[in-house]
Amino acid sequence: MRVVLSIGGSSINPEGKPDIEFLRKMAKMLKESKHEFGIVTGGGSIARAYANAARELGAGEYDADSIAIVSTKQNAHIVIAALGGAAHPNVPATFEQARTAFDGHKAVVMGGTIPGITTDSDSALLAEAIGAKRLVNISNVEGIFDSDPRKNPNAKKFATLSYDQLIALAAESDKRTAGTHFVFDMLACKLIARSKIETHFVSCRNMKDIAEAIEGKKHGGTVVR
Questions:
Q1: DSSP state at residue 176
Q2: How crowded is the C-beta side of 144, counted as CA atoms within 13 Å?
Q3: Which of 68, 101, 181, 203 could disulfide-link 51, Cβ–Cβ 3.0 to 4.6 Å?
Q4: 36 with 102: CB under 8 angstroms?
Q5: From the CB of residue 53, how many other CB atoms can be counted at a distance below 10 Å?
Q6: How far apart are CA 197 and CA 125, in angstroms?
């Protein structure tokens, strides 16, 4: 079975440098799994910093997005390094390339693809392209909440949501600019809904939850189906 992982940049480089412990634990888990993995990496704080700097220097949104995409691909390369021979050694530029890159490899790792498209949407498109019916979103948040838990200590976490409920929550926050969006953007929500891709939202700090989500089992995050 193929499973897509969308790994947020904040999970890979939470303080502006790669989290070696997280990468080692994640790589070990994936290499021991019976599944094949399509992986999409976000850009995190580095991508946001470069995109914002580009805007301050007069760049438009297309160029800010393009610069952010470079950071996502840098993170893809560090994930490939962690996986070693289990991963295809190159970062595919397109979903078509990713689809054909599994031959002899357990994992294929991508960054962003097109300006204006977040890595959330890239992960949903990759799932469609490779026929994955399960997607695991790994970030620095424990799931989906009714408000930002970093700002509201009383925020309520959802254990389960329907696709329509997720779309309604995303609609409240969709801004379509690099580095600023709901935990899963509107386009990504609609893509998983149209293809009925079961999507799990878990924290990078909880390897047990990540492992359970990969298997489609109950965990402490949020499941959308």
A1: -
A2: 26
A3: 68
A4: yes
A5: 12
A6: 11
- Report whether 55 contacts 132 (CB < 8 A): no
Residue type at 47?
Answer: A
> Which secondary-structure segment (H or E) carries 21?
helix 20-32
Q: Which two tokens stand for residue 66?
A: 């393009």
Query: How many Cα atoms within 13 Å fall on the side-chain side of residue 193?
Result: 16
pLDDT tens, residue by residue, 56-69:
999 999 999 999 99
Tell me the three state secondary structure of residue 193.
Answer: helix
Q: Which fold has domain 2-224?
A: Carbamate kinase (3.40.1160)
Domain boundaries, the chain: 2-224
Q: What is the pLDDT of residues 67-113, one digit of tens each?
A: 999 999 999 999 999 999 999 999 999 999 999 999 889 999 999 99
Question: Which residues, other chains included, contact 66 with Cβ-Cβ below 8 Å and sequence gap of 6+?
Answer: 115
Whether the predicted pLDDT of 194 surpasses 80: yes
Tell me the C-alpha to C-alpha distance, in Å, between residue 219 and each of 1, 31, 55, 203.
Answer: 20, 21, 40, 10
Residue that has been written with the tokens 């498109």 in this structure: 125
DSSP string, 40-103: EE--HHHHHHHHHHHHHTT--HHHHHHHHHHHHHHHHHHHHHHHGGGB-SS--SSHHHHHTTTT
Closest by alpha carbon to 189, among 113, 120, 94, 110? 120
